[in-house]
Amino acid sequence: MTANLIPLLMAAGLVSCGVYMLLERSLTRMLLGLMMIGNAVNLLIIDVGGPDGNPPISWASSGKATDADSLAQAMVLTSIVITMGVGAFVLALNYRSYNLTTTDDIGDDPEATRVSHLSDEEVIAAEQDHGVPVVAGDLDAVPDSEASR
C-alpha cells in the first residue's frame, strides 16, 4: 500500500488549520474548524484507500490489474453525512447563542474562573462543607494533620 505525499500534506494542513480555528472563541470559526477537520479525514481515507482499479461491478472493466476497494468510498460517504449532521447541530447552537447573547463569541465561565483561583485549603473546606469526598490527588500540598480530618 502506497500513499501519495501531496494529499497527506494537504490533510495535515487542513487538520492544523481546523484545530487552530477550533481554539478560537467564535462559534462560527469553531464550525469552520470542524468542517476543515472533517474534510481532512475524508481526504486521508481516500488517500490511504489504495490505488484506483476496476470498478466493483462485475460487468464493467477498465483493464486494470486489480479491483478498486469500495469500502473507502462508503466510509467517506458516511463521514460526509456525519460531518454535515454535526455541522447542522453546531450551526443551530450558534443561532441560539446569537439570539440569546447577540454575540458570536464565547466568554469565560465566571464560576470556573472563581474555582481556579481557590487555594487547596479552600477547596478542601468547600468539599467538606458540601459532603463531596476529597480526591487523593488534591491532598499533595496539604499537611497530613488537615488531610486526616
Automatic annotation (TrEMBL):
<dbReference type="InterPro" id="IPR050601">
    <property type="entry name" value="CPA3_antiporter_subunitC"/>
</dbReference>
<keyword id="KW-1133">Transmembrane helix</keyword>
<comment type="similarity">
    <text>Belongs to the CPA3 antiporters (TC 2.A.63) subunit C family.</text>
</comment>
<keyword id="KW-0472">Membrane</keyword>
<dbReference type="GO" id="GO:0005886">
    <property type="term" value="C:plasma membrane"/>
</dbReference>
<feature type="transmembrane region" description="Helical">
    <location>
        <begin position="70"/>
        <end position="93"/>
    </location>
</feature>
<protein>
    <submittedName>
        <fullName>Cation:proton antiporter</fullName>
    </submittedName>
</protein>
<keyword id="KW-0812">Transmembrane</keyword>
<feature type="transmembrane region" description="Helical">
    <location>
        <begin position="6"/>
        <end position="23"/>
    </location>
</feature>
<feature type="transmembrane region" description="Helical">
    <location>
        <begin position="30"/>
        <end position="50"/>
    </location>
</feature>
<dbReference type="InterPro" id="IPR039428">
    <property type="entry name" value="NUOK/Mnh_C1-like"/>
</dbReference>
<keyword id="KW-1003">Cell membrane</keyword>
<dbReference type="Pfam" id="PF00420">
    <property type="entry name" value="Oxidored_q2"/>
</dbReference>
